[in-house]
Amino acid sequence: MADNRIINSITLKELLEKYPFIINYFSNNKLDIEGFEGNTFEEYLNHFSEEEIEEWAIDTKKLIEGLSEYINQMIEFLGIKEEKSVESLTILAGRDKNGKKEGFEEIKINSGEIVSIVGPTGSGKSRLLADIEWAAQNDTPTGRTILINNEILDKKWRFSSNNKLVAQLSQNMNFVMDLTVHEFLELHAQSRMVENEEEVIKNIIEAANNLAGEKFNLGTPITSLSGGQSRALMIADTAILSSSPIVLIDEIENAGIDRKKALNLLVSSDKIVLMATHDPILALMADRRIVIKNGGIDKIIKTNNEEKEVLLKLEKMDRTIQSMRNSLRNGEELNKSILK
Ligand SMILES: Nc1ncnc2c1ncn2[C@@H]1O[C@H](COP(=O)(O)OP(=O)(O)OP(=O)(O)O)[C@@H](O)[C@H]1O
Q: Which parts of the sequence belong to the ABC transporter domain (predicted)?
């Protein structure tokens, strides 16, 4: 429920995105907030001069309380269910491919945490992501159970397509639709009922182009995007448009996009991110990594300080490789000086 704390801590723009109906409250109270979208409601109210406050009998405290009450009443009236917030995700142990119990009791992942999943090809990394996506309840081949906020997810949540708890970026992206990038994003924005559609679409394309090598534009047909470009578009789309609190990523390394930027974009909000990867940089960028062996979770390792130092070195090496890649792409010849 909206209380004064929320109202005072987020900007008017965010508030309007969350509760579009409050525009009526502003007009009923003759408050013109234009130009103050980046401020909080309190900041907006405080901008009035003493004369204005007197002339229009502005009572800041009353207006803030009034807004809070208005939001709560409207939520009740409209029957809106506020998005369930996810504070934690817990994996309860199942079995490996031989039916042996996994080497842990439970793993708890809190919001804002990034966890990588490592293990040989075919060991069961994608299976673990699928268990989470499906919110397994001892009903998948691994026998694992997934808890959200320490509880088993009720059926309503589990099988409802609107209440998307999980956003999945999968290995295969088959676009069969005959749409331009703009049409695709527009459809998606409409299905999420965002208010400022064009602005959101512009932000997504900008973020996607920031990740991909060769720029594309809104008029480009989805089907003519390269693998890396469509991956970049999906990542930007998930980060900006999806409100899912849990993001599952299956391999972003092969797409030729800037992995670090992609990850930063995805974790900028308070999401839980799990990513299966064979890439040492991505594996070490996580706070913890789950090691999978023969279908079971073998252990969980916390990324230690020495590894964080290794990561810095690896990133430097990666930049060298990246610049070689760019030179080769641009038809240049390499020389040994780049290795120094
Ligand atoms: N605990 C388990 N019990 C039974 N089958 C399992 C278990 N874990 C994984 N599998 C099965 O093993 C197969 C390979 O697993 P998966 O595709 O998850 O591997 P992966 O680690 O993602 O491989 P890659 O690195 O090649 O993407 C799948 O068919 C999966 O369903």
A: 86-320
Same domain, 106 and 208: yes
Query: Residues 97, 74: one domain?
Result: no
Residue 319 lies inside a defined structural domain of this protein: no
- Total domains in the fold of the chain: 2
Same-domain status, 37 and 143:
no
Task: Examine the domain organization and report whether 249 and 282 are in the same domain.
Answer: yes
CA gap 36, 13 in Å, rounded: 8
**Domain around 45:** 4-78
Whether residue 143 has its Cβ less than 6 Å from ligand 1: no
Distance from the alpha carbon of residue 6 to the mean position of ligand 1, in angstroms: 43
Residue where a domain terminates, one of 78, 98, 115: 78
- Range list of β-strands (E), the chain: 88-92, 106-110, 114-118, 145-148, 151-152, 166-169, 246-250, 272-276, 288-293, 296-302
125 ligand 1 Cβ < 6 A: yes
Residues in contact with 156: Cβ distance below 8 Å, sequence separation at least 6, in sequence order: 163
The answer on 289 and 196 residing in a single domain is yes
Band (172; pLDDT cuts 50, 70, 90):
very low
With a cut of 50, say whether residue 161 has pLDDT above it.
no
Q: For the chain, what is the mean pLDDT?
A: 83
- Give this prediction's pTM: 0.69
What pLDDT band is residue 184 in, cutting at 50, 70 and 90?
confident
pLDDT (tens digit, 9 = 90+) per residue, 79-90?
A: 555 555 788 999
| ipTM rounded to 2 decimals | 0.96
What's the CATH code of the domain at 168?
3.40.50.300
Q: Specify the residue with its C-alpha closest to ligand 1, atom 15.
A: 124
User: What is the residue with the minimal CA distance to atom 31 of ligand 1?
Assistant: 127
Structure tokens at 222: 């989805």
